[in-house]
Amino acid sequence: MNEILDVAALVLILMGALLCLTAAIGVLRFRDVPSRLHAATKPQVLGLMLICLAIALSLRSWPVVAFLVPIVLIQLATAPLSAHMVGRQAYRNGTIDEGGLHVDELAESKRTPPAAGG
């Protein structure tokens, strides 16, 4: 049984590392901000989750699981938030192609100054 769990941990580590690598390549290769944000958040978070699961399987200790769960939860909470803030700032700077947006919910806020209360 220990060998099966070790092999599963090895496979999960490799899959997580591959996802993290594809996230890094995507951040470097994609041209626009939304594509880069997608590459920076989705595969990176899943890769981290797989690596944490592999560590928990490999060490087989409840204190390790108790340490890894908050790490995953914090990553799940902060990755979308940081991507949202970077995307909004890119929109405000004008570095996002507005023609490629299907729905532009911020168009009205762009016309109204932030201090105008609207």
Please tell me about this protein's structure.
The protein has 118 residues and is mostly helical. It has one domain. It starts with a helix and ends in a 7-residue tail after the last helix. The protein contains four helices and no strands. It is elongated, with a radius of gyration of 19 Å. The model has no long low-confidence stretch (mean pLDDT 89).
Structure summarized in a few sentences:
Pfam families: PhaG_MnhG_YufB (PF03334). By secondary structure, the chain is mainly alpha-helical. The chain is 78% helix and 0% strand.
Please name the defining characteristics of this protein.
elongated; 118 residues; mainly alpha
The span between the termini is 62 Å
By DSSP (H or I, 4+ residues per run), the number of helices equals 4
Category by helix and strand content: mainly alpha
Helix content: over 70%
Low-confidence stretches: none
